[in-house]
Prior knowledge:
The complex is a heterodimer.
Chain A: H1 3-23, H2 39-74, H3 77-111, H4 113-122, H5 124-147, H6 157-186, H7 197-203, H8 206-210, H9 215-244, H10 248-269, H11 272-286, H12 290-295, H13 300-326, E1 328-329, E2 335-337, H14 338-357, H15 365-379, E3 388-390, H16 391-410, H17 438-465, E4 467-468, H18 476-501, E5 506-508, E6 512-513, H19 524-550, E7 565-566
Antiparallel strand pairs in A: 1-4, 2-3, 4-7, 5-6
Chain B: H1 2-30, H2 35-55, H3 65-89, H4 95-111, H5 114-142, H6 165-175, H7 199-202, H8 205-213, E1 218-220, H9 224-229, H10 236-239, H11 242-253, E2 265-267
Antiparallel strand pairs in B: 1-2
Helix pairs in contact in B: 1-2, 6-11, 8-11
Amino acid sequence: MNVSTRSLVIVLGLVLGGAALASAQVPPAPPAEFPYTGNRTAVWIVAQLHILFAAFILGAPIFAVVSEWLGYKNQDPKYDRLAKEVTKVTVILYSMTALTGGLFIFVLLATYPDFTTWLIKHFFLIFALVYPLLFILETIVLYLYFYSWDSLKGEKKARHIALGVLLNVIGTVTLFVIDGPTSFMNTPAKAAEGVSIFEYIQTAGLWDKIANYSWMPLNLHRLVGNVTFGGFIAGLIAAYMYMGAKSDEERSYYDWMGFVGNLIGVGALLLLPFMGYLLAYELCDYDASICPYMMADQLSMFFEMQGAMVGLIFLASNYYIWLSMKRIQGVEQVRISGMVMIAVILIPAVMSVAWKLFPPPEWQSLIFLALLIVLPPILSRLPGLRFTVSSFTMIKVGFLMIVVANAIWMTPHGFVATQALATEELELPSWASELALMPAKNAAAFTLVFLTIVNYILYNRAIRSGTIIWGKIDFTSQFVLIFLAFSAIWTMGLMGTVRSLTRKYYHVYNLMPDFTAESFTPTLAYSAWWITGVTLLFYLVVSFAIVVTLGGGGQKTEAPQGTPVPAGAK
Amino acid sequence: MAEQSMTRNILKKGVIGVVVGMVFVIVAKATHFPTVFQVMFFIYAMLGAFVFILLDAPSMNRLQGGKAIVGLILFYLVLSGVYIGGATGLPQYDPEIEKGKIDKILKARRARTQRGKAEELIARAKALNERAASIDERLKALGGGAQVAVDAEAVPTSPAAAGDLVALGKEQWELQECYNCHKLFGKGGKKRGPELDNIGNLMTPEALRQKILSPKSWMAEGFEKQYKKGKMPNKYKDLMFDEEVDALVAFLATLKDSSVKTPKPVKMN
């Protein structure tokens, strides 16, 4: 796809969006009826596809500019090539974002005309002016960023990086702006005691509607999620290219790219459980009835599935570190204090008790946390406690604890889709009910995060003292990278479904009821089919974009690759 | 050689996984975990075994060209199958349970919208038309002079009309999901709000109405933290019709089980 075709597609997308907005002003027409899927699922598919593309075009530039900056700082051309290749794919997928965005508005207007016009009227300034302008601005800066890559190099590189930063600032503002109406649908602005929300919303200002309960938590969750997404997709690109590489030189470069993609993806992933927790906390704080709907009733098994997915993602990302370490020569000499291993084993139990005694946001639990982190290095200096374990032993114990943490995270209060159907045969015995409560879940999440950090510390020590040969990683690792991207996208689809469903039978929670016959909560099985379908469709398009843009072999790196180099010198 | 070592690896870790899993099952059984949890613990043990099999697995041969593409497609199919299968294997919430509830809540609200009113008028006109046609046919059949009996079902009798306000109130308790935060008749949550079995002895109907419509007007003793955080949603004045609030109040006023220690309500403002 050349520049003019891409521009044409984007302009078409914007025109579709504009036309859709304009048609929002005409009197309501009878809603369209989508065959087979029904209206709600049709909107679901298009919206989910749009969000996946949008997440990529917002996450990938963050990844790209950080990589470009690292290349500039370390004078390492590999980083610059990585940044450029990711941006190349982003440019292609940008057109898809515009197209699916336009399609989304059209489908929404055709299927839910009353609600859509109502929402557009409440956020008219955003939909008619701010959002389109930001999108156009972002398009211009993205193309400037990409097409000035070769002209702004050498001494002018800093200017190019500044352009990348500007692109990310605009992208982040765009995300925050569109999150306004999205979060408003979940938690519309609250009226003061004694004032009707219906009356209040008619007079509330635009900012009151945007700055609602879940706006900032959603912003943070999506921002961090997008970086994770960008990292894992970079890993996916690397895996495809590694598989298709014809020379050792190419393989060593894409092996390295996969490692960096995974590192950034996992780095952001570590924050995601806490961002998700913050969003859920605000939703529950907004309306206490949302909490049991999510955790105990209709959506409880969606969270069970989420626990399984997050657990698998953490397992896979740590398995990738393991495979990366296995190819470092001299890794067997790397050792770590045995006290760290003991701390790792104690974390789930100690933190469960700490968070039970002092639930967030009470700060006292942080003392336990600090002790678990600070004590191992102090104790390991004491005579008699100076024993060490090999890095492989530590990682294996770590994996055991990851499985334990996953087990805690996934243990539900009862194997029932709603508490109303709970019986003794399906519920935890009362003495073990703590396993299903938030302190245990938080402790499990913290264990997963802590262990991943420990594994990266070990990896860092290994590459400092050993020798790494890029391009010689176990081929299984490429499937791990693909697994991570696929699972991250699937989980994103699942949690997006959960966020939308927390509005229950409302388009806008408590404000605008959904009177259609489809306003019930779909089953998890039904949802899983559509989430998988959307994930596969997205994968198909992304795979196509990768093959089209980079399939020709990409540019050749200037640095000699494929030869053993001291890892620490990279 | 690699195949032999992989087979040994699978056998060794597999056996350990089964043994550990069996120990889990025995301990879980002895400590009164239901069967479904015993199975779950066994699966966790096998997951652990699978992870350790992977850790010690020999390196995979490189796939290229067509083999790589087939490998990828198969991998995606397996992943899709596992995720769909996993989600399908978990207990499923039956949408039919919710549909009836949503219908009850939204029917009255829809009827009050412009579109709802128009649809109701059209439906009524259609029903009248059909009835007129049916009467006309009967008159013709009877020679035009007989008195036509009015269908019993044509006269609507709602529970409220029959004086069953308390039953309607109980229905509101379910529809508004009060049980999420209040325990009643031994069922429901009790952390966010007080249990209400004896509330009829502690609050007048007027006070109950005030609490529902303006949650900050009363506080239950011992629930200061929840009161401060505004746990009781300030939304029922907007979401419930007057007659629905009347019914709920009537139901709550009948709750006079003094054997249950319902916290004392305190008037706040």
